[in-house]
Design goal:
The structure is a single chain. Helices cover 25% and strands 22% of the residues. The protein is of the alpha+beta class. Strands 1-2-3-4-5-7-6 form a 7-stranded mixed beta sheet, sandwiched between helices. Helix 3 (106-120) links the parallel strand 4 and strand 5 (125-130).
């Protein structure tokens, strides 16, 4: 994985997962997932997962988790799935978390890196569920809202009232 010189994001390693989990607990308390979920998603998407190291010892300032997942389908929260379904070239951006104390622009830098890596890997697109009123951030990164009616019934119910399925097609 290559990273822009403006950013200190780096590839996520297995040893980062405890720090990723702690960061997720702090930043996404309404979307709790067990540690095993992070392990499984990293196993599936290790080529696309990254962390933002911190100047504080044994911490990170951010993380991004993305893995192969089929377009038009939303993975259930807090479930360790036994297999990764055929993705047909699509990635699912599960989490982007950046501590408020991190330098500005880090979220944008992480997304740009992921898009570049997805393009280099020949991916068809990237999908995500925008939560916590983040839809405008994702729009600025080039993602477009999709009709929730095209998703399986109840697919977004655990993601919160403001959840929006979004895609970046043709990376």
């Amino acid at each position: 994985m290559s990273f822009p010189s403006l950013s200190s994001w780096r590839a996520m390693e297995y040893t980062d997962l405890p720090h990723v989990y702690k960061c997720a607990e702090r930043l996404f308390p309404d979307h709790h997932e067990e540690y095993a979920c992070f392990v499984r998603r990293w196993e599936w998407g290790r080529d696309f997962c990254m962390v933002l190291p911190s100047v504080r010892p044994d911490q990170i300032d951010g993380y991004l988790v993305a893995y192969p997942w089929p377009y038009g389908s939303v993975p259930p929260l807090n479930q360790v799935l036994p297999f990764c379904p055929q993705s047909h070239g699509w990635l699912y951006l599960s989490d982007l978390a950046v501590e408020k104390s991190a330098p500005g622009g880090q979220g944008k830098a992480a997304v740009a890196t992921l898009v570049s890596e997805a393009r280099d890997a020949g991916c068809a697109g990237i999908a995500l569920v925008a939560v916590n009123h983040s839809e405008s951030f994702w729009r600025r990164q080039g993602f477009a809202s999709q009709d929730a009616g095209a998703l399986p019934a109840g697919a977004l119910m655990h993601y919160g009232e403001d959840a929006v399925y979004m895609v970046l097609d043709g990376v």
